[in-house]
Amino acid sequence: MLLRHTPEEIVERQALMINPAKTCQPIGAMYAALGIHGCLPHSHGSQGCCAYHRSTLTRHYKEPVMAGTSSFTEGASVFGGQANLLQAIDNIFTIYEPEVIAVHTTCLSETIGDDIPQIVSKARDEGKVPEGKHVIHANTPSYVGSHVTGFSNMVKGMVDYLAEDGVEHKARTINILPGYVEPADIQEIKRLVKELGIDSIVFPDTSYVLNGPQTGKFSMFPEGGATVEDIRRSGRSMGTIALGPLASGAAARALDAKCKVPCEILDLPIGLNKTDEFINVLRKAAGVTVPDSITIERGQLLDVITDEQQYFYQKKVALVGDPDQLISLTEFLVSIDMWPIHIVTGTPGKKFEKRIAEITKDIPHKVNVRQAGDMFLLHQWIKNDPVDLLIGNTYGKYIARDEDIPFVRFGFPILDRIGHIYFPTVGYKGGMRLLEKILDVLLDRKDRDSPEESFELVM
Predict the structure, then answer these.
(1) Spatial separation of the C-alpha atoms in residues 392 and 408, rounded to whole Å
(2) What is the DSSP-derived secondary structure letter of residue 240?
(3) What angle do the packed helices 292-312 and 183-195 form, to 10 degrees?
(4) Which DSSP string do the residues of 378-407 spell out, in sequence order?
(5) How large is the angle between the packed helices 183-195 and 427-449, nearest 10 degrees?
(6) 8 Å CB contact between 269 and 243
(7) CA 116 to CA 233: how far, in whole Å?
(8) How confident is the model at residue 169, as a pLDDT?
(9) pLDDT tens, 367-393?
(10) How many CB atoms lie within 10 A of CB 88?
(11) In Å, what is the CA distance from 236 to each residue of 128, 204, 284, 373?
(12) Which residues of 20-122 form beta strands (DSSP E)?
């Protein structure tokens, strides 16, 4: 049943991926584009590609995701998509009136070799881009990278097209590039920055775009998102803090090169130590004192760790997901004496394996780690060396069922549960939420497996 045909014997594969631990670049680019207020993402390729990207985001966020498409046919596939994109830009600005069109490419338009900057320039020359409106782009072929690299490319595109360095003296603002995280995580990051009394520019910002309230009315462009003016002003900030080296690093470095805004690239603030690092860098950059409200939150997370530590001690964990998230999550689990021993990301990048090896070096157990890996390999590792817990996206449920493992949903995509768009896993409060989820599944398993004489009211 399901994946039970997966063999225990591991054979190295060079040109075959089974159950990929990633999805394609345009999905990440589309998600990033939704973090600009009044932006309509545009898929430069076939209509089917755009439909898949939209449906995946819609299923994860449980919100309608709007996007345009160049709708390639056989003719565009042979002769190129310039005419389609020119017509699309004209139609979109005329009918939907967005502030920004964010074009991302697909496999087809990349294979043809469409020159997007030239097409956009031609659209401006022909008056198809209204005054004060913007068209930005990112190259995102699906046959390289993953949704994380697509996100990174689009955020860099925001900097390349929109950021401006217009004054000699920098403003007293700090740019925050939040990385590939949930809308709730971005809200939590913004809340922490506000608690510190820091004036910030956060982009992309999908909070209240993909987790907004139910008002009974449809809005093509929800209230949330970073405005074009915000992104323009980012070039005049006194510094940038990029969260997640892979998702945010390229944009931070581009902003430094273009506008001379110094940047610091941190891991995602998941768990106690990584949140401490984030708060400390913010404190130093802005020259502020950490308020009691944040100190109390930190103490509460410490209290949760203290109360629950005996249940986590030496529990073996398998992880699958995106590299930025897995690096911070692995460090958090190690800090509470759990043993992450099987770790897979579908996103390519040799640095990932090195970082994980450094974090897990003191675990007295063999640790398997693979970048550009797949969930078939993860399943084989688990068969050969069973674990107490699996953490990953929805597709992990098949492994969890077949191997009878407690399972915590974390990352992208989560298609079979709700709540992830409203409850953060970053920051001190997010750390408490994450530990609660882990403890719940571990103790549920203990309740399920305990004989009657050991079925305790208080554990």
Answers:
(1) 7
(2) E
(3) 130
(4) HHHHHHHS--SEEEESGGGHHHHHHHT--E
(5) 130
(6) yes
(7) 25
(8) 63
(9) 999 999 999 999 999 999 999 999 999
(10) 22
(11) 30, 17, 19, 40
(12) 39-44, 68-69, 100-105
Distances (CA, A) of 41 to 52, 99, 250: 14, 11, 20
Q: Is 377 helix (H, G, I), strand (E, B) or coil?
A: helix
Burial letters for 9-44: b for 16+ Cβ neighbours within 10 Å, e otherwise? eeeeeeeeeebebbbbbbbbbbbbbbbbbbbbbbbb
Supply 402's token pair. Answer: 């077949």
Domains of the chain, first to last: 25-144 (3.40.50.1980), 174-291 (3.40.50.1980), 294-449 (3.40.50.1980)
Element (H, E) at 266: strand 263-266
CB-CB contact of 377 with 12 (8 Å): no
Q: What is the pLDDT of residues 195-232, one digit of tens each?
A: 999 999 999 999 999 999 999 999 999 999 999 999 99
Token digits of residue 197? 């009394």
Return d(Cα 241, Cα 175) in angstroms, integer: 6
DSSP strands (E only) in 275-405: 316-321, 339-345, 368-370, 389-392
Distance (Å, whole) CA 207 – CA 108: 32
Q: Are 101 and 40 in contact (CB under 8 A)?
A: yes
The answer to whether 33 touches 390, Cβ cutoff 8 Å, is: no
The residue whose two tokens read 């760790």 is 305
> Is residue 168 scored above 70 in pLDDT?
no
pLDDT band for 167, please (50, 70, 90 cuts).
Answer: low
> Positive or negative, the Cα torsion across 30, 206, 240, 237?
positive
For tokens 């103790």, the residue is 443
Q: Which residue has tokens 């997640």?
A: 244
Q: How confident is the model at residue 78 (pLDDT cuts 50, 70, 90)?
A: confident
| Tokens, residue 396 | 């992990």
Q: Under a CB-based contact definition with an 8 Å cutoff, are residues 234 and 293 in contact?
A: no
Distance of alpha carbon 177 from alpha carbon 198, whole angstroms: 15
